[in-house]
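Structure tokens please, single chain.
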Amino acid sequence: MSIRSLLPGRIGFGTAPLGNMFRAIPDDEAAATVQAAWDQGIRYFDTAPLYGAGLAEIRLGDVLADKPRDEYVLSTKVGRVILDEVEDPASRELGEKGALFEHGRPNKIINDYSADATLRSVEDSLKRLKTDRLDIVWVHDIAQDFYGDEWIARFESARTGAFRALTRLRDEGVIKAWGLGVNKVEPLETTLDLEEPQPDAFLLAGRYTLLDHSRALQRLLPAAAERGVDIVVGGPYSSGILAGGNHFEYAEAPAHIVDKVGRIKGLAQEHGIGIKSAALQFVLAHPAVAAAIPGATRPGRIAEDLAALTQDVPYAFWKALREQRIIAHDAPVPAEDAA
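Here you go.
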């Protein structure tokens, strides 16, 4: 099924920051941020066991517990099982992501994409989220950034395990849709080439943004659109650098990225728009993209995101980005038809 009929709007709420990504966030601040999203009409929430070893799911579940379950769409991920044992969060092996959630819970995380682990992960997430059902389940991070050269073996484990388990849950009506949630294009291209039941959608983080989109444009997005596999864009602000932060790819932004963002900001100021508006509206302009899910840890950020969706961005701005080769010439832009 197309998840466009399932999603309540073109913007959702990504909860990775609520797992204490980069910094320890007070519980009350996390709760206020989720409540602000709800109060301002956000009805799609995405989370994962990895985010703080279950912390983001727990925090999200605490706020949503008193909301009518039929009024929101909920997605989480499988591929990691959270144990009662403890470990040093800073010493976890997270591939290129380093100590991303070192401020999260100390519960031990194991990587397991088998069918049994998938079913266990779903059950555990339901408990942490204090709900009786999930709408969408993503298979998390079967890609090079976490597993290096072993990613193909991890992918194969997921293909014969998680993929089939989630297909069965979907066919039985336990979940409404499933897909992959990754930070790389290659696993998604590989999945589309499989001659077996296809997922309903992909959650692609960081690979279709103002700063990085050429690879996704070449094959993935056209192929996904052709097969009716919707794309949800995670990380539309490229880990925060496009929203006033200093992180790119979950780390301190390198000089060439800081320079590129400075050029985008300069053009945005010249045309009287905000850089958030440029970032969000760019990703949503591609016909394969069903929604974007920026994350936040402060209540005020939600209003900024919603305002960015509706700000009038002149075509001259997008034209300038193309002329300066900041965005690809063939990347769709919102004001194309009006030009």
